[in-house]
Amino acid sequence: MHAPVAPSPRPAPPEPATAPDRTAPPDLADLLDFARVAAADPEVLARLSLHPTERTWVRLEGPGGSEAWIIGWPPGSETGWHDHGGSSGAFVTSQGELSELSLGVPLPTAGWRSLELEEGVDRQRSLPAGRGRAFGPHHVHQVVNPSRDLHAVSVHCYYPPLPQLRRYARAGDVLRVAQIEGPEEW
User: Fold this and answer.
1) What's the pLDDT score for residue 7?
2) How many Å apart are CA 51 and CA 107, to the nearest integer?
């Protein structure tokens, strides 16, 4: 009589060729997804107090080392023209409606003080509650709450965390760097 033969061990399944890289920085889809989920979460939104005439904000931890903010927008408030210092970003309106005015061409984030814009580069989009957008590192825009009587609330997410914010003065087709702010000034 022969001794029973043990079955030969099965080989381990092969590693997927495209295993997800858990150390990769968040991409635009990750930033927009985070903003969308946070903008729909009543517990997150409850952290923000609204002021009748001034914008308010609360910082959040975003995905993969990004920074995020809940921002309250009183009626008629706006950011003015600005960029995000080379960071990519996304934002989603949670309550009310925001209007984004942007330039339809990417601008360099350094090396210029004044720029004449070509005709036709202006873009405008309305972002009612639940709508958002993502943008790359060379995006210049201003965000406005166009309502005369209702607050708006939004969630914004940036990667890498904002190193600086460049504010611009705009006169017609001329865009000029007006001020550069660091994080300590927000």
Assistant:
1) 45
2) 33
